[in-house]
Amino acid sequence: MIAVEPSLSDLAAASGIEARTIRSWVAQGLLPAPLNRGPAARYPADTLERVLAIRAMRDVLGMPLAEIRKELLVASPDQIRAYASRVPGSAQEPAPPPAASSALDYISALRAGPGVASKPPPPAAAPLAAPPLQGFDALEHRLGQGRAEPARKARAEEWLRIPITPDVELTVRAPLDAEQRVRLERCADLIRDILLGRDR
């Protein structure tokens, strides 16, 4: 069982990701910084889920780190948990029942424990429901249900800063294409309307 506030070695052991890779992801802004410094440094409790989610997005879905960073900006905790569960053999993913042709085979496989060769499980049926909205689509849907979208021009700077109110600013550190910039500005307009009470 992993600690409530895991250490770097806890994260590496539980995720199968090398400690230096986890440090690199912290430096790139994909993971939160440790809560304290030094060899006994501890990380926030949800860091393991984020590590597993990044691993799944990179290894299972083939996403580059720049795209993963954008997805993590807007992903809800449930979406991060869903990504983390896609890592094969992770503690987040329930183990499939052993395949067996008879009750005797099933009991023998259970007694033998993990690592015993068995027939591969039958392929899973394709889900019938549409996948939940993710990323920018989920953010826009939550913020602007039923509202008209204002026309916006994309900004062309590396750091995208969008003022919302005199005290609030939306800042994104990532190279975004023109469509992504326009979508973020639409989201900023929706946030501004909500904060200023114009969302009715």
From TrEMBL:
Any one GO MF term held by the record is:
DNA binding
For this protein, the record's InterPro entries field holds:
DNA-bd_dom_put_sf (IPR009061), MerR-type_HTH_dom (IPR000551)
Q: Domain HTH merR-type: where?
A: 11-74
Q: Which domain of life is it from?
A: Bacteria
- Gene Ontology biological-process annotations: regulation of DNA-templated transcription
Q: Which Gene3D superfamilies match?
A: 1.10.1660.10
What is this protein called in UniProt?
Answer: MerR family transcriptional regulator
Q: Which organism is it from?
A: Siccirubricoccus deserti
